[in-house]
Design goal:
mainly alpha, two-stranded antiparallel ribbon, 8 helices, 2 strands, ubl conjugation pathway, NPH3_dom, NPH3/RPT2-like, Root phototropism protein 2
Length: 156
């Protein structure tokens, strides 16, 4: 699609559809169930799903803001669940931090999953997302000749 000069939004739509169909159970199931008792067949499926997710993330268009925030948060949750490569998680965290001003609490809660009846959060991912957003806002404030404190108070 890229070689035929398809628009980033068209590519994004195709990737979203493909991810939702290919990772159907993980996209729809926000519980994280099955993580503690994997038999060898399920373990192989998880490896295939992790490789597929990492491939999908590698195909994301370079335009950072073409994907809905809830889709990116869902992919990050899946990456955490499948223990994807750090490069995959980092890419998703960067993309989320770029459009963090559009995030809702529910979007961030997608990054949690249930394990033994408890809610677990990947606080490191949340920290990276917020840090990336703050750095972006600092650079915007500097670029605009403003004071970062003024920008920060707008978001506080």
């Amino acid at each position: 699609m890229k070689s035929r000069d398809a628009k980033a939004l068209t590519i994004a739509s195709a990737i979203i559809t493909y991810a939702e169909r290919s990772l159907r159970d993980l996209v729809r199931d926000h519980s994280g169930s099955g993580i503690k008792s994997l038999d060898s067949g399920e373990f192989d499926i998880r490896i295939q799903q992790r490789e597929l997710l990492e491939s999908i993330v590698a195909l994301l268009p370079s335009e950072k803001a073409v994907f809905p925030i809830n889709f990116l948060c869902c992919l990050l949750r899946i990456a955490i669940f499948l223990r994807a490569a750090n490069s995959c998680k980092n890419e998703l965290e960067k993309r989320i931090s770029v459009i963090l001003d559009h995030v809702t609490v529910d979007d961030l809660l997608v990054l949690s999953f249930t394990y033994d009846g408890e809610r677990l959060f990947d606080l490191e991912s949340i920290r990276k997302i917020i840090s990336g957003f703050v750095e972006k806002e600092k650079s915007v404030a500097v670029f605009n000749g403003g004071d970062f404190k003024d920008v920060f108070h707008c978001y506080a």
